[in-house]
Amino acid sequence: MRRTILHVDLDAFFAAAEQARRPSLRGRPVIVGRPEDRGVVAACSYEARAYGVRSAMPVAQARRLCPQAILIPPDFPYYRRLSRAFLAILVDYTPVMEAAGLDEAYLELTGCGPVAGSPERAATAIRRRVRQEIGLCASVGVAGSKVVAKVSSALAKPDGLLVTAPGREAEFLAPLPVAALPAIGPRADERLRSLGLTTCGDVARASPALLAFLFGAYGQALALRAQGIDGEPVRSAPSLPRSVSREVTFPRDIGQAGPLRAVLRIQVEKVGAELRRLSLRARHVTLKLRNGDFTTMTRRRTLPRPTDGDELLFEAAEGLLEEWLAHGAGPLRLIGVAVGGLVPGRQLALLEGRQEIGRCIWSSSRCSR
Fold first, then answer.
1. Which of 62-71, 101-110, 214-223, 233-242 has the highest mean pLDDT?
2. Could you give the CA distance from residue 295 to residue 285 in angstroms, rounded to a whole number?
């Protein structure tokens, strides 16, 4: 039996959500982001995109490109409520649904014809219900694999439906730029372009040895994906996250130890609360620091045992910060904390004794502006 996968993606989710609850914003350029000078664009409406505004762009740059845009700070509790309503619609069509974020999901419709109807009918019904029930537009891609379904939904935007016929996947992908494939970032795209591999068809025809040299074991998978061959299943059960993190960018560089510790404490408590909500414990803590010149340093410590407790997490993070401060480093524009090595299960002890924190791993990089 041929697989049938739907990728459903809400269009310009955060910005569209703001337009949905404020009808006066419809048809106007909207930017969702913090108003601070160093904030970045979390999302933007299609009206703002027409001026060159894009997600992850500094807010200051976005406002220069589109001075008339309405800037709105993000409201994540509201977006999560809409996301839950969105996902609740999707599970009416199949028991196998994989949320890929707040605003997108994969649906396995193989064998669901008696309930969902044809893939086109199901996709049309989903788009109609999303519009009627939560006031948003969704684009849907239909294909025989996750990778082609995602590419199809991206090409269907905004507010469209694109079905890639079975057996036509390689033909469909061949003329598209390599960057259209999921998980192909700017660096990988640049490396492929430097060798003249600019389209999915180029990659599909490339030497397996060359792709293995460039990308190791992933090279073979890349060649298959460029042909639309992807056996990855739709996973209805959520997998454990690899990490939990929080970070903040300051309006102005901060070099004083007191304010930095206070901000770090807040970040650690947010991370700890998320671990406890997910019933997870962490094996190591990573501190992320960024200077005014965009040099980014990360330092990691392994904990004596997995924990979800704020005190041990903060003890490790604070110790890493103290080492940074002891080196007389300059003021910081960003500070963040991440925990990894996650394992299921809550702690049995209510209070954790102080123990020696384990080994520390350092690394650094230069962040592009």
1. 62-71
2. 20
- The angle formed by the CA atoms of residues 258, 261 and 262, to the nearest 5 degrees, is 85
Span 323-348, average pLDDT: 81
Question: Are 19 and 25 a contacting pair, CB within 8 Å?
Answer: yes
DSSP 217: T
Task: Lay out the sheet containing 70-72: strands in order across.
Answer: 41-44, 30-33, 70-72
For residues 282 and 303, the answer to whether their CB atoms sit within 8 Å is yes
Burial (Cβ within 10 Å: 0-12, 13-18, ≥19) of residue 2: exposed
18, 47, 98, 104: the catalytic one is 104
β-bridge pairing 104-108 and 5-10: antiparallel
* DSSP single-letter state for residue 180: G
**CA dihedral of residues 324, 327, 332, 337 (deg, nearest 10):** -10
Question: Which range in 6-15, 53-62, 110-119 is most confidently predicted, on average pLDDT?
Answer: 6-15
Report residue 358 as tokens.
Answer: 């384990």
Give the Cα separation of 191 and 340 in Å (integer): 30
What is the three-class DSSP state of 284? strand
Domains located in the chain, CATH noted:
5-12+77-163 (3.30.70.270), 14-75 (3.40.1170.60), 173-225 (1.10.150.20), 243-366 (3.30.1490.100)
Tokens of 271: 């991370």
Strand partners, 10: 138
Indicate the helix (H) or strand (E) that contains 59: helix 59-65
DSSP string, 212-241: HHHHTTHHHHHHHHTTT---PPP--SPPPP
Structure tokens at 303: 């904990």
Closest listed residue to residue 144, CA positions, set 120, 166, 126: 166
**Whether residue 104 lies in the annotated active site:** yes
Residue 31 three-state SS? strand
Closest CA to 163 of 115, 225, 130, 119: 119
Q: Tell me the helices (H) and strands (E) count for the chain, helix number first.
A: 14, 14
Cα 28 from Cα 48, distance rounded (Å): 8
pLDDT in tens, 219-260: 888 888 999 988 888 988 655 678 899 988 887 888 888 889
